[in-house]
């Protein structure tokens, strides 16, 4: 009994965006990574094209993040004091991209400086040939100081600069334009705020093929359903032809999942939570996997085992048979 | 195609007899159109109208219920493809599988902790929904013994798994009186399985890798008088599983395609495929082993995905202790929207500083939304202070308001004249700094 499968017709396409630049294009990356280009909902290969597989970045820091879960610090114990070594280790673990997040202060509690930020990013670029994302500490003024210096010192690399939000987008977009970089536009889990920031950014003249959007998410158990539905709605809008939502989506499940007590803490928690290490990794993997289902093009994780599982899931979603 | 309320009304007796429980035939017709009642509630509808209405009055995805001893697991009756369009209704049942090749004592001891498992998430106690017993031995007596052993430990609904009708029959006998799921009918055994389904009134899972064959099988089984079916679109890997689950859901909802208008069962092999099954349309999920560190996040993900987007998860209003506060420590005020609560509680906890957290009943809204809606004002905050006897817990009466509602600090001072009212930061992330420097 032949079943006629209903196909949705989508007039819109997600923009294709290339991260990183090789020597031929004025950068130093060994290769570039291209995301986006979807003509249908996530992984609906029977209906339309999804030409580029989603990719996974590993988040590293410019200095040992003392507030991270001991599970993560143990994993990266030999490299956490050196961003170059850390980037190298992340690449060896299978990362597609490296996201370095700059700290607000140095290890003595003094504010981070542009010189130190540039040195850290340069060390990463030297250690790995992967495309790199550079995120500021998340305080608009300090982000501007650090990211402008980094952008100027790495001209032509097609780095992704973040976080570019309503408070500081002018500075970040201007320096991205002047120095050949991309921006990651973050808004707090709201379809209209996302669109609005994308409009403001492209109105400044940054070509739309240099914008990623970060709709923000919550971790599993801490608001993931909001991020999940906002992403589904953004992707539906993009496919329906709304140009200001047609950007590839980046989300940071590692950052969110490892903030939760479930991942961070091993002692004094309910016995029903089970083994700490496996629970923490499941928390990160389930958060990332769920967001991939709702349309993420780039997910940023922290643990190498999560990276392995999420990459395997992406391979399967793109059509590979499950590994046995 | 679904009929409108008026179209349905024309097919009803139009006598307004009220025996259906509604005041008029029109009111009943409207409820039918909204798929909120069954046509069977009308005792006088003509056979002709029945046939015409059957198609439109049945929900596009049939509701299937597994039952045993007061426990119930429901799947089906879903109406949307994306949760933001309305909501997902019936949280998929989470089952753990055991095999009859294990000695019965081993089954019992492995099942016991899974049966007893309960975990608290935002004040709700979550458990597994039932267990699956799979015949890998192919031996009817062994299967019956395994099912009985499992039943001696758990009263929850079961999924019985065997492709051999004789083996299945032995298992069903061991569960007489319950409503388990029979897994599964295939192209080679469907007649015998349909007989068992009828005899034991047990819903029947239908299994095939091809949607064409699946539709053909459900129609044949339905013609035998069995309508409580579950679909198993056997899939190797995440991509075919997602494609088929989406196609089945689309056919049911968009085309009202009856041969595939049933809930689905999934057998995820790893955390990512379990997440996919939860988000993408499974009605029953069978895990191949019990591990707390996976069951807990899956139960949480299920709560999250099946939260009604119109009714956010709320936290119980009250006074919460963070980092073991003492009588001189400050009281931070926030609302009972779960995300607001978690953001604030997480930041306070990570600051390492002790504090009381006064969660005010703001009808589950975030600080600014609740303030704008008049659900988070001086009066409500003062009422919470009194209701939860906050004054008895502290020696220093110090209340910190969220920075976003700094404007109401004067009014709060008016309501609580013997309290020191402070204004905190606008964003939760700035709370630790504020606590260290300003408190």
Describe this structure in words.
The complex is a heterodimer of chains A (324) and B (439). Chain A is an alpha/beta fold. Chain A has a single domain (16-314), classed as TIM Barrel (Alpha-Beta Barrel). Chain A contains eleven helices and ten strands. Chain A has helices at residues 70-75, 83-92, 114-127, 140-153, 169-179, 191-203, 224-239, 253-257, 261-264, 276-293, 304-317; strands spanning 16-19, 33-36, 55-61, 97-101, 132-135, 160-164, 182-186, 211-214, 250-251, 298-301. In chain A, helix 5 (169-179) links the parallel strand 6 and strand 7. Chain A is globular and about 70 Å long. The mean pLDDT of chain A is 96. Chain B is of the alpha/beta class and 439 residues long. Chain B folds into three domains: 5-57, 3-methyladenine DNA Glycosylase II, Chain A, domain 3 (Orthogonal Bundle), CATH 1.10.15.40; 64-305, TIM Barrel (Alpha-Beta Barrel), CATH 3.20.20; 318-438, 3-Layer(aba) Sandwich (Rossmann fold), CATH 3.40.50. Chain B has helices at residues 5-11, 25-33, 47-57, 104-116, 140-153, 165-174, 190-200, 211-223, 238-255, 271-279, 292-305, 338-351, 367-372, 378-387, 409-415, 431-438; strands at residues 64-68, 71-75, 93-99, 119-121, 124-126, 130-134, 158-161, 181-185, 204-207, 229-232, 264-266, 282-287, 318-322, 331-335, 355-360, 398-401, 420-423. In chain B, a hairpin with a 2-residue loop joins strand 1 and strand 2 (71-75). The termini of chain B are far apart. The model of chain B has no long low-confidence stretch (mean pLDDT 93).
């Amino acid at each position: 009994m032949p079943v006629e499968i209903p196909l949705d017709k989508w007039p819109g396409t997600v923009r294709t965006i290339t991260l990183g630049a090789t020597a031929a294009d004025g950068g130093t990356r060994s290769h570039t990574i291209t995301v986006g280009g979807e003509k249908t909902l996530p992984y609906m290969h029977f209906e339309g094209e999804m030409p580029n597989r989603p990719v996974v970045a590993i988040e590293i820091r410019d200095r040992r993040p003392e507030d991270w879960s001991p599970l993560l610090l143990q994993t990266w114990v030999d490299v956490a004091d050196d961003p170059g070594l850390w980037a190298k280790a992340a690449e060896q673990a299978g990362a597609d991209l490296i996201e370095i997040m700059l700290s607000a202060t140095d290890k003595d509690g003094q504010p981070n400086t542009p010189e130190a930020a540039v040195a850290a990013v340069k060390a990463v670029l030297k250690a790995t040939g992967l495309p790199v994302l550079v995120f500021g500490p998340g305080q608009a003024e300090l982000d501007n100081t650090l990211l402008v210096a980094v952008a100027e010192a790495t001209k032509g690399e097609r780095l992704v600069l973040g976080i570019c939000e309503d408070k500081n987008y002018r500075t970040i977009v201007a320096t991205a334009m002047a120095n050949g970089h991309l921006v990651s536009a973050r808004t707090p889990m709201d379809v209209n705020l996302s669109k609005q920031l994308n409009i403001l950014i492209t109105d400044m003249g940054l070509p739309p093929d240099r914008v990623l959007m970060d709709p923000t998410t919550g971790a599993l158990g801490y608001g993931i359903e909001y991020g999940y539905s906002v992403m589904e709605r953004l992707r539906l809008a993009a496919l329906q032809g709304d140009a200001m939502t047609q950007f590839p989506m980046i989300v940071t499940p590692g950052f969110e999942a490892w903030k939760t007590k479930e991942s961070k803490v091993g002692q004094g928690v309910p016995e029903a939570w089970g083994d700490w290490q496996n629970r923490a990794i499941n928390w990160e993997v389930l958060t990332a996997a769920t967001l991939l289902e709702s349309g993420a093009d780039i997910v940023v994780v922290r643990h190498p085992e999560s990276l392995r599982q999420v990459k395997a899931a992406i391979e399967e979603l793109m059509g590979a048979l499950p590994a046995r | 195609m679904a009929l409108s309320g008026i179209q349905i009304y024309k097919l009803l007796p139009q006598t307004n007899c009220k025996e259906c429980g509604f005041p008029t035939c029109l009111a009943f017709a409207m409820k039918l159109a909204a798929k909120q009642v069954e046509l069977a509630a009308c005792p006088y509808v003509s056979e002709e109208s029945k046939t015409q209405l059957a198609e439109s009055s049945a929900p596009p995805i049939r509701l299937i219920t597994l039952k045993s001893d007061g426990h119930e697991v429901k799947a089906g009756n879903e109406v949307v493809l994306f949760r933001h369009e309305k909501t997902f209704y019936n949280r998929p049942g989470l089952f753990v599988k055991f095999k009859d090749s294990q000695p019965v004592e081993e089954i019992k001891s492995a099942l016991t902790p899974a049966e007893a498992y309960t975990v608290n998430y935002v004040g709700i106690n979550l458990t597994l929904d039932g267990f699956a017993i799979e015949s890998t031995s192919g031996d009817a007596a062994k299967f019956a013994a395994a099912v009985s052993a499992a039943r001696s430990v758990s009263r929850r609904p079961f999924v019985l798994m065997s492709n051999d009708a004789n083996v299945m029959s032995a298992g069903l006998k061991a569960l007489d009186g319950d409503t388990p799921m029979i897994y599964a009918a295939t192209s080679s055994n469907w007649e015998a399985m349909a007989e068992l389904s009828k005899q034991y009134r047990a819903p029947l899972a239908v299994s095939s890798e091809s949607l064409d064959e699946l539709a053909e099988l459900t129609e044949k089984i339905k013609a035998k008088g069995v309508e409580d079916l579950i679909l198993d679109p056997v899939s190797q890997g995440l991509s075919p599983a997602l494609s088929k689950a989406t196609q089945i859901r689309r056919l049911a909802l968009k085309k009202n395609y009856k041969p595939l208008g049933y809930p689905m069962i999934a057998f995820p092999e790893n955390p990512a495929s379990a997440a996919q099954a939860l988000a993408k349309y499974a009605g029953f999920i069978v895990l191949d082993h019990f591990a707390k560190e996976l069951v807990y996040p899956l139960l949480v993900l299920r709560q999250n995905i099946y939260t009604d987007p119109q009714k956010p998860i709320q936290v119980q209003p009250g006074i919460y202790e963070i980092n073991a506060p003492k009588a001189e420590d400050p009281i931070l005020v926030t609302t009972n929207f779960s995300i607001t609560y978690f953001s604030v509680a997480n930041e306070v906890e990570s600051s390492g500083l002790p504090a009381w957290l006064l969660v005010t009943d703001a009808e589950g809204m975030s600080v600014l939304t609740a303030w704008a809606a008049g659900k988070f004002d001086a009066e409500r905050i003062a009422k919470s202070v009194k209701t939860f006897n906050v004054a008895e817990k502290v020696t220093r009466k110090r209340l910190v308001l969220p920075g976003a509602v700094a404007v109401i600090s004067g009014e709060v001072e008016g309501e609580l004249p013997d309290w020191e009212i402070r204004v905190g930061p606008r964003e939760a992330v700035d709370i630790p700094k504020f606590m260290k420097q300003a408190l």
